[in-house]
Amino acid sequence: MPGLISCHEPGALTLAGGNCLLVLDRPHVVGILNVTPDSFSDGGRFYSMELALRQGLRMAADGAALIDVGGESTRPGAGRISEQEELDRVVPVIEALRRELDLPLSIDTTKSVVAREAVAAGADFVNDISGLTFDDKMARVIADSGAGLFVMHTSGRPDVMQRNTRYADVVKEVIAALRRSMDVAEAAGVARDKIAVDPGIGFGKDLAGNLELLRRIADLAELGRPIMLGTSRKSFIGQVLALDDPGDRLAGTLATVALGYAGGARLFRVHDVAAAHQAALMAEAVCLGAGWTTG
User: Fold this and answer.
1) For residues 229 and 32, is the Cβ–Cβ distance under 8 A?
2) C-alpha angle 246/55/135, rounded to 5°?
3) Which of 233, 234, 249, 266 is catalytic?
4) Which candidate in 111, 116, 205, 269 is catalytic?
5) pTM attached to this predicted model
6) How many CB atoms sit inside 10 A of residue 48's CB?
7) Does residue 234 have an active-site annotation?
8) What number of CA atoms fall less than 13 Å from residue 74's CA on the CB side?
9) Distances in Å between the alpha carbon of 208 and those of 166, 173, 201, 236?
10) Distances (CA, A) of 288 to 24, 41, 293
11) At what angle do helices 250-263 and 273-288 cross, to 10 degrees?
């Protein structure tokens, strides 16, 4: 797989199986593949198997280091779907991508049953937007599967999370919640070197909270784990730039990718893979200066 090195190298994240690592000393773009009819930006665009596979292949060609497959919308206000419906959406797509791509895959889910079946189908990571808080079986399922884990912060389920966006100190509270999620994961048997953290931009935060998290993203380094940033096309960008259509928010997204890299984030979950990959590489070159290399 591209970007993989020996398991004994530092600064990396262990994949499912434990026999290889995704290098995290450089920026890595995580391609968003929503196989849903109702996601906030691209709902319905990749709902069929053929369209989803084609988009996954396109993202890989555009520079994605990992593809994150999601079958349930987590946009603000979204309701839940059944385990079976989510499985029917994501498992065939993961199986198809696994046959076609030599690239790490992730399942974006809060359901332990979906996580287990997705990893069995070929996913290397579980991306849990709830930080292991929605399903008390999730941590054990991930530990037993050997998968890597992305833990994100949210203040509640998507249908209610924007009802309370007040924090005394949003950054400190997000860090504390992520630390609790890591503790739950490790207590269940998930190795620390398999965990990355995500502050949950847009999940239970208002405009000021989202901007504060981005401004102080470097503070998350105290958790000692790689940082994933998911800002792509989100509503706070629309608020700042007065852009109602998520498809018009690419420039704002790329600004957050560059600033996120400067602040220490190394994984960037985006819809527009090629542009984000270029922005991240440019930010890397500026930040590293004479120490930058294309290798």
Assistant:
1) no
2) 75
3) 234
4) 269
5) 0.90
6) 12
7) yes
8) 29
9) 10, 15, 11, 9
10) 15, 33, 9
11) 40
